[in-house]
Amino acid sequence: MSTAVSRRSLFARFRGGPAQLRPPWSRSESEFTDQCTQCARCIEACPTGLITPGHAGYPIVDFARADCTFCGACHEACRDACFDPDASHPWSLKASISNACVETKGVTCRMCEDICATAAIRFRPKLGGCASPEVRLEDCTGCGACVAGCPVQAITITPQNSSLQEATP
Ligand code: SF4
Ligand code: SF4
What number does CATH give the domain 93-157? Predict the structure, then answer.
């Protein structure tokens, strides 16, 4: 590992701010930041606009911008060794829904249930006309399509295995 690469990696590891989620099929955080030259090819290749520059220019995904179709254009565009397209799963990201969900307060919505292509979101009826959302993790791909569909920002996408996907804060 060169000195320049080590500095880059250290800089990424000691920065502050919110969680930085790498694109699908990214290698471990240390491998990713050691290999990434911040060339932005993956950012330019992503057809949905999901990938954007994060801290120090390293690419991250931002589900407020778009969702992931798992087309693979990002790893195909990369000329370095940042991605592992042979990995068994593109990432460990899954959706979770907070108590801000209006269905839990008796307001009809269920936008996320309608949007989810894999039917990972279900609502369990409760007494008094309310319903509580559940995400079936085995069916959730972490695509993020439900995030932008939620009118009250109740949905977040988080890694199940932070060492594989999330940059060290
Ligand atoms: S797989 Fe396709 S849609 Fe998903 S981040 Fe990569 S380029 Fe974008
Ligand atoms: S992240 Fe994608 S697969 Fe998971 S619940 Fe949301 S829409 Fe469904």
Answer: 3.30.70.20
Domain residue ranges of the chain, discontinuous segments joined by +:
3-91, 93-157
Q: How far apart are the C-alpha atoms of 134 and 116, rounded to whole Å?
A: 12
pLDDT in tens, 3-34: 343 344 344 344 444 568 999 999 999 999 99
**What stretches in the chain show pLDDT beneath 50?**
1-17, 163-164, 168-169
| 62 vs 54: CA distance, rounded Å | 9
CA of 86 to the centre of ligand 1 (A): 15
Three-state secondary structure call for residue 12: helix
Tell me which fold the domain 3-91 belongs to. Answer: Alpha-Beta Plaits (3.30.70)
**Which residue type, as a one-letter code, is found at position 136?**
R
Smallest-distance ligand from the CA of 68: 1
Nearest-angstrom CA–CA distance, 64 and 90: 20
Count of C-beta atoms within a 10 Å radius of residue 70: 14
Distance (angstroms) between ligand 1 centre and the Cα of 46 equals 5
